[in-house]
Design a protein that fits this description.
about 675 residues, alpha+beta, four-stranded antiparallel sheet, 24 strands
């Protein structure tokens, strides 16, 4: 049982604390034993404390920095880093981590202690560093006070990213520019919702650029300064672009219709995207498309009949793969989409906090990267404020067109952008990720689509003002259910245009298309639970080359979408992820159960294990802490027979113990 394991770890921790003051060798052995049981935040703090006693300050710092990759919002790790950096007189880093520890403190005393250390170090720094300037501290404060990725296309401090270089590795750079904005050259906090932006993968060029190609290609190019003069020489042909010839507020696409040598000379800094080779790889699909519809519940499609509520979608996927039992791994968009993109459970990718920034792309490989490495030209057309480049979703992407759904970019815009992209780059292998947020209108009580309004009867016009604290927590509402179905029908209209385009321009052997969601809707069921089928069951459909014609009810998890896409794109499925290729798609075995976790600050932790006939539910009494740690001092469990709705835990004690053990193995690093 979880409580017994916690007691074992707690007793070991107490013994380590004693030995740290008595016998460092024994303490070292006990800490190693502790680490084999769990690598929680305390483990890294204990190891660094041992290093301090042994006089190995820099080693202790490295251990704590490693701990931050897993426990970014932990007070103790940041506080200890502040202390150790202070010991070696690295004042800037010491101040930074004391500020972070104050930000993530859980009580007044901890915050006071961190603040006092900041004040002390500021005085020492000013006395010892003759170059001390307030600007240095201001930069640190900006790093500490960053907001989350919803700010994009502003940076995490609310400043415009337009025509600024973004780097995640030394050799990989990105630049964001305006997109179809004509006279507008930049954005701010007020206007960022109302303009599309375009992010391109490439490199900054100061004066000279050369490229040799064995095929025709397209080159994206953006100015970064006014009055830029560019000279292009290609196969001895010269094209001059004088000052103000190319607009600064967009990417300019240069087409080269033959193989050859390119030389670009410029008087000012410019940004050049990775060349887009117009050459098809025969061993890969010409088109791989992943269509994400936020908040689309499978049960509604099943109850209404897919061909009735989404006739165009039903027709396209008619002879394809349709999963009737695909279960989400997390209950809302931020962690759920991260699981889909990494093939890992929320406790591994750790993109969980609704407000604190975590650079999850630095510690995870994303779906687009696999396709980029396989030679695809990768693109995203995104409206989702939880999957922006600010959350790391630029990684592996060659081209990203983004505008927040709040600004008006709906499924109609996403479809037309996708069609234009495919038409423009038809002579290369394309991987395209589409994001549609239209169903978010319903729980948010927004009416902005003509089709949905016109098809809503007057008796269903009024909202009941039953909007939850989040869309996830919106309660049962017949009016919302009615409007929800209208929005689904509207999405299907535009998907029909997209599917028709694909079928007209590609043979079935040349494409692979997946449609899926991240979660269902709580307002669809009267129980109002986050573990009802209306919430945790989502569509997962696949159509294209070699995809079997099958309606299957084997248990599938949303982490299985990544390996399924890779396998049918002739890309090796990585080892070490949680996702598996479903048996119906060629995998070796079926899953016995699906695993869903709810790890959200200020809500109880919940784990739901879904079998075909039973559901196991674990829920803590205390809420998840703001630093994402979880108290298991009190928790409840149920093992529900789906047919009788009865708790049959007593009859299945072995199964209950097994599931508790399984949950513990996944959540142990988060236990407080």
């Amino acid at each position: 049982m979880i409580s017994e394991r916690i007691v074992e770890i707690q007793n070991l921790f107490k013994e380590i604390e004693i030995q740290l003051g008595v016998d460092l060798e024994v303490a070292h052995e006990l800490i190693e034993q502790y680490g084999k049981l769990v690598q929680d935040a305390r483990y890294f703090s204990l190891k660094s404390t041992l290093c301090f006693y042994q006089g190995e300050i820099n080693k202790g710092i490295d251990i704590l920095k490693e701990g931050l990759k897993k426990h970014s919002f932990n007070f103790d790790i940041h506080y200890n880093l502040g202390f150790l950096y202070g010991e070696i007189k690295d004042y800037l880093n010491a101040i930074k981590h004391y500020l972070f520890s104050a930000k993530y403190s859980n009580n007044i005393d901890d915050k006071k202690s961190a603040d006092e250390n900041v004040e002390r170090l500021l005085k020492e720094f000013a006395l010892t560093d003759v170059m001390f300037k307030k600007e240095k501290i201001a930069e640190i404060v900006k790093k500490v006070n960053v907001q989350d990725g919803r700010m994009y296309p502003l940076d995490l401090n609310g400043e415009s990213l337009i025509r600024r270089i973004i780097k995640y590795e030394s050799e990989k750079s990105y630049l964001v520019n305006m997109y179809q904005s004509f006279q507008v050259t930049n954005i701010n906090k007020e206007s960022k919702f109302y303009f599309k932006t375009e992010l391109i993968n490439g490199e900054q060029v100061e004066a000279h650029y050369t490229y040799n190609s064995d095929a025709p290609f397209v080159l994206p190019l953006s100015l970064t300064e006014d009055d830029t003069v560019i000279k292009v020489t290609y196969n001895n042909k010269i094209v001059d672009f004088e000052e103000n010839t190319l607009p600064i507020n967009k990417y300019n696409y240069l087409k080269f219709n033959e193989p050859g040598e390119l030389v670009i000379e410029t008087n000012k800094s410019i940004f050049i995207g990775i060349p887009i080779l117009l050459k098809i790889r025969k061993d890969k699909p010409k088109l791989v498309m992943k269509i994400f519809v936020d908040g689309l519940a499978y049960d509604v499609l099943e109850e209404e009949g897919l061909k009735n509520i989404m006739p165009n979608t039903a027709a396209f996927f008619k002879n394809g793969f349709n999963a009737g039992n695909c279960i989400i791994n997390s209950e809302w968009t931020l962690p759920s989409k991260a699981s889909i993109n990494t093939g890992t459970y929320p406790t591994k990718h750790r993109l969980l906090h609704p407000e604190y920034h975590y650079s999850f792309e630095e510690h995870n490989k994303l779906m687009a990267e696999y396709f980029k490495e396989a030679g695809f030209y990768t693109a995203r057309f995104d409206t989702n404020w939880r999957t922006t480049a600010g959350f790391g979703y630029y990684k592996g992407v060659d081209r990203l067109v983004y505008e927040s759904f709040h600004g008006g970019m709906d499924c109609r815009d996403v479809v037309t952008e996708a069609i234009e992209h495919i038409s423009s780059f038809k002579d290369t292998n394309n991987y395209i990720n589409l994001s549609m947020m239209d169903l978010h209108n319903v729980p948010d009580e927004i009416e902005s689509h003509l089709f949905s309004e016109v098809n809503t009867d007057i008796t269903m016009k009024r909202n009941k003002r039953q909007k939850g604290s989040t869309s996830v927590l919106t309660k049962y509402d017949e009016v919302k259910i009615y409007k929800y179905k209208q929005e689904i029908k509207r999405i299907d209209i535009f998907l029909g245009i997209l599917f028709g385009f694909i079928q007209k321009n590609y043979d079935k052997s040349e494409y692979l298309v997946v449609l899926h969601s991240d979660h269902g809707q709580t307002f669809l069921n009267k129980e109002g639970t986050l573990y009802h089928n209306n919430r945790i069951k989502v569509p997962f459909m696949m159509q294209g080359k070699d995809v079997p014609s099958a309606n299957v009810y084997e248990i599938i998890e949303t982490v299985d979408i990544l390996p399924s896409l890779l396998a049918y794109s002739n890309i090796e499925v990585p080892k070490g992820i949680d996702g598996k290729l479903p048996k119906a798609l060629g995998g070796t075995i079926e899953r016995d159960y699906a695993f869903t976790q709810i790890i959200h600050p200020n809500q109880p932790y919940k784990a739901i294990i879904t079998e075909k006939d039973f559901t196991f539910i674990l829920e803590t009494k205390e809420n998840v802490d703001n630093n994402l740690t979880i108290s298991f001092s009190e928790y409840s469990t149920k093992y529900i027979n789906k047919n009788t709705k009865e708790d049959v835990s007593i009859q299945y004690l072995e199964k209950v113990e097994f599931f508790e053990s399984y949950i513990y193995s996944n959540i142990k690093e988060f236990i407080r």
